[in-house]
Every structure is written in C-alpha cells, then in structure tokens.
Amino acid sequence: MSKPIYEIVDDLPTTGLTVRALKSLDFVVPGHWENLVGFDNTIKAVTMETDPAMIQAIGERAVQLYNDKSQGYQKALWLYNTVDSASSALGAAALANRVGQDISFLGLLKHLAPKPEQAQSVDLAVKLVTEVVAFCQINGIPGDSLGDFLAALGDYGGEALLRMAALVSFDGLVPLGPNFIQKVGTYLNGLSPKDLEQNQTFKGVNELIPGGSSEEKLNFIGQSFESVKGWMGNLVTQNGLTQEGIVDRLVQVADVSKDKLDYLGAFLDIAVKYYSHTGTQTLARRLIERAVAEV
Amino acid sequence: MIRFNWRKALAALLLSVLLLSGATACSKVDNSPYAQAQKESTQRGARAVAKDAEQGSSFNKFFPSSGQGYTVVFSQEKKGFSEAKLKKDAKDMALLSISDTISLPTAAKKYDSATEKLAGYPVLEIGNTQTGILVADRYQVKALSRDPEFTKENRRAWIQKFDLIGLSKLK
After folding, report:
1. Are the beta carbons of B46 and A48 separated by less than 8 Å?
2. Chain B CB within 8 Å of residue A94 CB
3. Cβ–Cβ gap A139/B76 under 8 Å
4. H-helix or E-strand containing A164?
5. Looking at CA atoms only, how far is residue B162 from chain A in angstroms?
6. Does a structural domain hold residue B49?
7. Which of A279, A277, A269 is nearest to A96 (CA)?
8. What is the number of CB-based contacts under 8 A between chain A and chain B?
9. Which among A12, A82, A186, A207 counts the fewest CB atoms within 10 Å?
10. Measured between CB atoms, does A275 come within 8 Å of chain B?
11. CA angle A103, A105, A110 (to 5 degrees)
C-alpha cells in the first residue's frame, strides 16, 4: 500500500542538500521561499484556519481526495518522484545515500561522469513536459492544454516558481551554459523518436506523456518547449541568473570546487531531488485548497 | 510409534515466523489523527467523488467575471469542483469555489443550522476565512479570504456576483 499523504508531507526534509540547493535559489521567489513541511502546518499555512476541528475536517477530506485514484493527485506525485529518480543517470542508489549525508563533493568525483549535452538537453525538455502533465493531473485541465498551462505559469509562485527556477538553473544554465535554450532547441530538432526512447528520464515518465507513439510524444515535448522557452528566457533575465552566479551559490552549498564544473550537473542530478520535494509541496497545497472549499 | 517429521516441523516453524513477521509489519500503529480517514478511503470501492457529481467545467460559466480591479483566474477544475483565484495587483485576495455536495453530504447538512440567508440561500460563516451558501440544496458556493484585507463583507459581496440563479437550475 502506498504511503499516506500526511506521512509524505510530514516526512519532507527540513535540512540536507536539496533544501540547501533550493534555498540558494529562493531569491527568485517574491518574498523568498518558505520550506513548508508537515501536513497540519501546510493546512494552517494554506487555509489560515486555526480551529483544530476545522483542521481535522480539512485534513480528512484531503486524505480522501488523495486516495481516490481517479482524481489524478497520486499520478502527479508519481511523476514528480519519477522524473527526479530517472534523471540521475548513474542510478547509483548507494551513492545517492552517501550524498544525502553531505559528504565531500570532491570525494565523489571519481564516481561521476558528466552527461553528454544531448542527454542533458533531452532531460531538461522531458522535465519541463513532466511539469505540464503533472500540472494538468493536479488541476484537472486536459493533458494537452498548453494554453492553460502557460496562463497558469505566469501565475506561478512559491515552491512552484522555485521548481521552475531550479529546472532552468540546475538542468539548464549549470550543465549547458548561457545558451542553454538554443542548445536544447537544436538538440530537440535533431532528435529521432528512437533517440528519445533511449533517454533515461523519458523512459521513467513515458507512459503519462500525451501521444500514442514516441513520435507524437516527441512532438508534444517539442511544442511544450517552444511555448515555454520565452518564459524561461524571461526568468533568467529578470532574476539575473547566470551560470557563474549559480555556481557561486552552489559552491557554498555543496563544497564544490569551481574547476570541476563539468561534474556539477551530474552531482545535482543525483543529490538534489528538487522536483519531488517542491512537487510534493505543490500537490499538498492544491489538495488542501480544494479540501477546505469542499468541507 | 509416531515419527517426528522434520519437514513438517520446519514448515510449521517457517509458517509461524512468516505469519508473525507479517503481523508485525501490518500492525505498525498509525497514530495520526488522519489514520481513520486513511483506512476508510483506501478500502476497496471507496471514492472521494461521487459518480453522479457534476463536471467541474459545467460550473465555470456561473463564476463572477473580473472587474473593479480584481481578476478571476481559474485554478482547479475537477469532477464535482471548480475553483478560481481572485487577484488584485498580482496579490491573491481570495478563492472562489463551487462544489457538488453529492460527494460529501455532511457539507450540505451543515447548512441545516443556518439562521440567515444570502441572496435567498442559507449562508454560514465557516472558520476564520470562509463564507458559504448552499444553492438548490446541493451546490456549495464559497468565498475564502486569502488576504486579511478581504473581509467577510467582501466575501458576501463576491458570492452574490456568481450567477446563482443559473447554478440553481443546473441539473
């Protein structure tokens, strides 16, 4: 049986590399990001209600909604979790565990191989599409409605905006450099459905990406990237995000030496579970927003 | 003479170990206040949203339009539920929602205690931030403050901006 939603939210970490890496980027969020952890805490913060009976009723309804598989909330969480674990190409669970203990970055280097640019580009695009699909699962808009997603993207805030900033920074700027948007576009254009099928991250979430064949899925990924790239570019300019700036911040977080920049992307892939962390927070928030309106 | 059958004894021993460990694994106590809700809602056939609940998309046309400096941005649309944010100067001021209480009869039942009406429907102030009415004994319309500046009076005014007559005729 899957873990209850209240345990998942209660168990979100308050420290560790993921939280520190996210904090290093939280200047992107107006008023900065609060690492909201704990089911009851989330209910109180989202609803501003204080009466214990009311909080209990909201929590119970949220639990019911989450457990009803037809509502899509479990699929969304599965997507956020899977895209994180699938993108750590080394799949070295043991290594990831050690990284969780914040051991020295340099000690890890011999185990890490930087991902080829093409794989990294596809990775970014697949993660972006995962966001689109998870958004639709959570908010109930049909899975191919990019227009609705784009309207909501403009309204992203809090942990959802931070997740996008992390995508742009950790999967774009750091491993691919300042021209990452053009690079990803070029690689996507030259990609065959077969190449896509080889990508580890795509393999993980493939079944929930709209489209009957790999070719259709590739088209959907291409369209999603095309529609969101302008927004990503703005996020970079408006917040003054640069490869150098992000690396400077990460140096403090992860004990990274700047001359090992090639490996930083690989390190982030394994150690930083920003999708599942902020994805769980987004899911809990939306679930609770619905529950409080229904009770 | 009864011969001691090692195989049978071993099988019995293994079985009991298996059962015992199984029982321990299953009997992990969930002390959460939500344990009961978890148990009930994971039982076979349990569902949070009734089969006959209205589609959320059929609620959308009854929501108020943007105006007076406020923007209505639809945020969730699920079977039996639709919700929009009410924003002013990029700030979330309130949430507006319609839900079908066919999935949650207790939500409708609470209006039995209402002593007051708003636009002809029973109205309740719920918790610190919510005003709700029950339309056609079935559809719950709520305004939920998300900013302290958005008062009870604002909530009541915005509830009246819904097309409540249209909603009451929804079958």
Report:
1. no
2. no
3. yes
4. helix A158-168
5. 16
6. no
7. A269
8. 109
9. A207
10. no
11. 110
The parent domain of residue B141 ranges over: 56-168
Would the CB atoms of B146 and A152 count as touching at under 8 Å? no
| A196, A269 Cβ separation under 8 angstroms | no
pLDDT top residue among B44 and B24: B44
* B146 assigned to some structural domain: yes
Domain that holds residue A271: 5-294
Rounded to the nearest angstrom, the minimum Cα separation between B14 and chain A is 25
**Looking at the domain assignment, is residue B44 inside a domain?**
no
The SS3 assignment for B70 reads strand
Nearest chain B residue to A57 by CA distance is: B34
Task: Look up the CATH number of the domain holding residue B158.
Answer: 3.40.1000
Contact A16, A254 (CB under 8 A): no
**Taking the alpha carbons of A112, A117, A119, A124 in that order, is the dihedral positive or negative?**
positive
ipTM of the complex: 0.84
CA distance A138 to A140: 6
Report the C-alpha gap between A157 and A38 in whole angstroms: 20
Chain A residue with minimum CA distance to B74: A152
Domain assignment present for residue B8? The answer is no
Name the residue facing B127 among A49, A63, A155 (closest C-beta): A49
Cβ pair A60:B107 closer than 8 A? no
Return the amino acid letter for B80. G
Do B145 and A67 count as a contact with CB atoms less than 8 A apart?
no
pLDDT tens digits, A110-130: 555 667 788 889 989 999 999
| A65 touches B: beta carbon within 8 Å | yes
Question: Six-digit token pair at A295?
Answer: 């009770």
Contact B106, B74 (CB under 8 A): no
How much is the pLDDT for A248? 86
Mutate to test the interface with A, among B36, B75, B124, B125 (most CBs of A within 10 A): B75
Q: How many domains does chain A have?
A: 1
Average per-residue pLDDT in chain B? 88
Q: Are B53 and B102 in contact (CB under 8 A)?
A: yes
